[in-house]
Each structure stands twice: as structure tokens, then as C-alpha cells.
Amino acid sequence: MQRHSFSLPIEILRDGSEPYKRQIMRQVEHMILSGRLQPDDRLPSIACLVAMLRVSRNTVVGAYEGLTDAGLLRGEPGRGFYVAEAIPRASPAPPPAPAIPEAPALPPRSSQASAGISPPGVHAAPPRYPVTFDFKIGRPAPDAFPTRRWAMLSNPLLRQMRHAISEYPPAEGLWGLRMQIADYLAATRALAVDPTQILIVAGVQEALHLLAAHLVHHGDRVVVESPGYAGFCNLPHLRHAVRIAVPVDADGLCTHALPHGPVQLAYTTPSHQYPLGYTMSMDRRRALLDWAAQVGACVIEDDYDGDFAYDSAPPPPLMALDPSRVVYVGSFSKVLGPGLRLGYMVCPPWLTDAIARRKALLNHGCPWLEQAVLARLFEYGDYSRHLYRLRRRYREQRDALLSGLRDIWGAHCQISGAGTGMHVALHLPPDTPDATSIANRALAQGVRLYTMEEAACAHIPATGNRVLLLGYASQNVAQIREAMSRLMLTVAGCHARQPASSTSVSLAGDASVRPGHRAEMA
After folding, report:
1. pLDDT of res. 167
2. Which one, of 511, 190, 202, lies nearest residue 363 by Cα?
3. How many domains does the chain have?
């Protein structure tokens, strides 16, 4: 599919130091090679660029023809110029920024606000090389979205939307969708909640922001996981609170390491710990809730990809064990897609009204049409059927990934998080180069793997660069097998070691998958 680009951020310096044609060529070349312009993007027409830059037609024509001769553009008669499909790999030096007045120094507190902030990891910088196989975490299969059904449900709503589109939607979300989510949670999570406790939000990140803004104040203590999700770990810092990082192991959050004394908030991902994938045991769940009651903490339960449990039923949510102290947060980003920007949170009754008021002040509610269509997906059973198909598909993709990793490392690696979710964590053997080295070499072969630093992780321990994260949902089985073949060549070139005596994989923290029993996972 061709994408269109009708304006480009090109700056023409008129000091006579460089011809205008060369300035245009250099800046467009940089935008292409840096990934800002993608293959098949259409460039502005010659007339448009002439008017925008106030240069001659011959100058623009010469620049476009020069880029075409260099293999960066292709011209289509009567249609215009497009970015070529095959782009050279060389990375150009960025063009010099135009001279601008020096900005005034920011107050000291502004510079301090960014200290200790981990990269969010959602919008990653484009890689240095073209990527053929991208194991990005949290990305669902792009071809799995129920496009036809979504359109069928949307059309009648569009014909009846005159009143709804002219009014602000309820800040809490559409009542019909909240009722459907309450029924869904009761059926799939044994979580009995009233629809009035459910708030529709623009993804999990908005829910976390609302909770932090309401519950956390200057000097409060907040417990986070180590390693943990940067999308939450950054929020207490912005509120000038004290973050207390508690380690995790194969049973989830290490409750014996929880702090004494008052704590305002604790954030955890018990179903599939982010990023290492561990599932919190029942003993740890009870211990966490007992501790929260003693110190007066509210607990956020982020169930970001708990819809995907492959080998056994997940333990009951923390909120089912203590509905008065836990806020349950869920997302539709993993089942449908993050582009919808829809999620939900289930609040204890004492918190619901306050969070709804904050939501109203923030953006007056989420878009009406997407909520209405989603409610009908639930009502007609389409959501459950779609989720069932995804589970089957992702299980096959997970099995292909585990098989490929077993062929590469045998018994010399450990994998955590395989029983649930959409990604696994690969713990590298001691004789293997670190995660950054392997990721860089794999990228040169068109395979993108993710280190913790690249995957929205915060409070990364010293051993963090011995872990690679691989999301498998967006890659089909054939793509995963080809990527593993390339990764095998990459690893073989990284170091020389003796062949493994066993061909099994140890799945740390996943009791349902044992070494040498990959066939049983189906």
C-alpha cells in the first residue's frame, strides 16, 4: 500500500554556501535512510515543493532526478516520485540544523525532572539496518484484526450516530461496553465487579497516569518491580515520590523484600511479569495483599496480556482476593491493536468517582464510535471467537520460537514467560556474548531482537544485559523459522563453543514446560 507525504521539513539556507538542489537532495536522502520516509511513500509534487521552498522548477526537478539516479526514488509518469522499495543500508550524517536563537536556560527543576526517567520503549528509534523479522514485544499480528466484522458493525452505527457524535461521551465510558466487560471478567477471570466500577481509558498508560496523579504525592513511597515496566516506573518520579524497586524471581514479586513502613502504592504484573514473564504464585499473591493491608498500600494489578494463557488456567486476579485494595487494569491493545487506544480499569468503589472526575478533566472520555463497535463485538460473541483464534495461532508461533531457540542453544539457555502472554525472555548462557552484541549482530541479518533497555524496562539489574526479549505474536510460523535460521548463523559467528550434549530448553519459571518436552506444549 502506497502512503502519501505532501509536505517535508526541508530548510533552505540562502547564504550561498551550498546549491539549493544539493540542499534538497541531502535532506531528502537523510529522511529516507533514517527511516523517516518509508518505501512507497509519495513525495510532494514538483509544483508543491517549488511553492513551499520558493525555488525554481529546474532546481526541484534536478534534485528529484539526482535522487532517482542514486536509487533512492522512483518516478512514475503522470503520478509523481516515490521512495524506492530497495534502500541502501548506509546511514547518512544528519543535515545541519538551521540556525535558531539560543533558547533560555530552563529552571533547575525542569532538568531534574528527566533524571532517572527510563525510555518508554513504545516509539523506538528506527534501526540502522532494514528489518525483515521484528520480534517487538506487545505487537499483535497485523493481519489478524477482524477488519470485515469491525466494518460490518461500524456501518449501522455510522448511520445512527448523529446524536451521539454531537455530544460528549460519558467520561466513564459507554454503559453498554462497561456492562459487557463486567460480564467478560466474571466469565474469564472469576472477577465479580459492578459495571459502575469500570472506567474506559485510552489504553493502560492513561489508567496508570490517572492513578499516579490521584494517589501519589511528593515524598510518598511507591513499590515497583525490578526489572519493571518503565511506563509506570517513570510516573512516581514525575510526582517526586520515592520509588522502591523490589526484585522478582520465578514466583513473581519477592514479597520478603517488600519494605516496612507506610507505602502509598504498589505496581505489579502478576499474570505475566513484565519483562521476564514470571507468573506470581498464590502464596506470593496472598503475601503481597497481607503486606498491603499492613502498610496501607493500594495495589495496581496490570493484566496487560493475561488473555493469552496456553498451558494452564491462570491464578485468580489479585482483585478477586482483595476487591477493596486492588485496582485491576486491562487492555485491548494486545487482542485487537494498540492503535485503537482503548483499555479499562476496575476500581474499588471508594476510588471510582475520583478517577472518573480526573478522566473528565483530562479528555472528556474516549471516542464514542470505537467503544460502541467494541461493545457489539462482545455482545455478539465476536470478541471471544477472535480471542480463541488468536490463542491457537500464538501457541503455534510460540512453539516454533521455542523450537528454534532449542536448536540454537540446546540446554545452555533458559527461557521464562513461555506459558502466558505474547513474548518470552531468553536468558543467555555464560559463554555467549551479551544481549546487546547478539542483538546488533542479528539486526545486521534483518532480525530485530530487543534488549531490556530497548523494551520499556526500568530498574534493570546488573544481569540485565544477559537477557533478550522476543515478542512472537506479529511473526507467523514461517517467519519465525526463517528468523531462527538467521539467528543460528549469527550466534555461530559470535563465538565458538562445543555442540550442546542435549537439545532441551530449560524454561525458567514455567513449571508447565519441562526440558525435552516441547511436544507436550501443544
Report:
1. 81
2. 202
3. 3
